[in-house]
Amino acid sequence: MKLETQKKIVNKSAAELFDFLADVKNFEKLMPENISKFEVLEEDKFLFALKGMPEIVLKMKEKQPHSKLVLGAASDKLPFTLTANINSIEANKSEANLVFEGEFNAMMGMMIKGPITSFINTLTDNMANV
């Protein structure tokens, strides 16, 4: 399954946005209002939970300075990645979107598609407001 958000304009340079997202504790600022738990576990790993959903642990898997960051599930039970793509537009303006990719059976895919789409759209919307 692959879900992609619309690109959003962020009033930060690509380098500033990259540095912001590279620091996993900043993801707390992007989370939806219905977050019930957020905890930084390591320098490159954090746990979060939304009300009514299980806890998810994300770990930084890849960094391509100023253009791409890849977070992945720390557990192999539900393998997925969340990729932030960043494009520079001007000195203090960039464009970003998120791509969620995971391998799920059809039933699981149907159950999570809506909540995941809503979640990554919220993260992207909040990125534009940081």
List the helices and strands and how they pair.
Elements: E1 2-4, E2 8-10, H1 14-22, H2 27-30, E3 35-42, E4 45-50, E5 56-64, E6 68-73, E7 80-90, E8 93-102, H3 106-127
Antiparallel strand pairs: 1-8, 2-8, 3-4, 4-5, 5-6, 6-7, 7-8
Organism: Galbibacter pacificus
Protein name: SRPBCC family protein
InterPro entries: START-like_dom_sf
Q: What can you see in these coordinates?
A:
The longest helix has 22 residues, at 106-127. The model has no long low-confidence stretch (mean pLDDT 94). The chain is built from three helices and eight strands. Strands 1, 2, 3, 4, 5, 6, 7 and 8 form an eight-stranded antiparallel beta sheet that branches. It has a single domain, classed as 2-Layer Sandwich (Alpha-D-Glucose-1,6-Bisphosphate, Chain A, domain 4). By secondary structure, it is an alpha+beta fold. A hairpin with a 3-residue loop joins strand 5 (56-64) and strand 6 (68-73). The chain has helices at residues 14-22, 27-30, 106-127; strands at 2-4, 8-10, 35-42, 45-50, 56-64, 68-73, 80-90, 93-102. InterPro entries: START-like_dom_sf. It comes from Galbibacter pacificus. This is SRPBCC family protein.
